[in-house]
Design a protein that fits this description.
alpha/beta; three-stranded parallel beta sheet; globular
Length: 87
């Protein structure tokens, strides 16, 4: 969807690779979308925290498939919950 509107996109399989990719590309980040639970040493909260300093004007979307995700560092960050189908 972002590419269809003319934005370039990057995709990473875990938080560590995301930060490496962002640092290497040194691109203007308009929107960062990350999940709370990610493989690697950085979860979505850490990626959001590590992104906010070098790109302070970027919008950051943190999503979760869990009803109430717990941030590992105690930061009070807003989280968009995924829609769930009843089991």
């Amino acid at each position: 969807m972002m590419e269809e509107t003319g934005f370039g996109t990057f995709e990473a399989s875990d938080g560590d690779k995301a930060m490496t990719l962002l640092a290497r590309e040194n691109a203007l980040i308009v929107l960062l979308s990350t999940d709370v639970q990610m493989p690697g040493s950085r979860n979505g909260f850490a990626v959001a925290r590590d992104t906010s300093s070098p790109w302070p004007h970027s919008a950051i979307e943190i999503v979760s498939g869990h009803a109430r995700p717990e941030p590992d560092d105690g930061a009070a960050l807003p989280v968009l919950n995924h829609a769930h189908r009843p089991s």
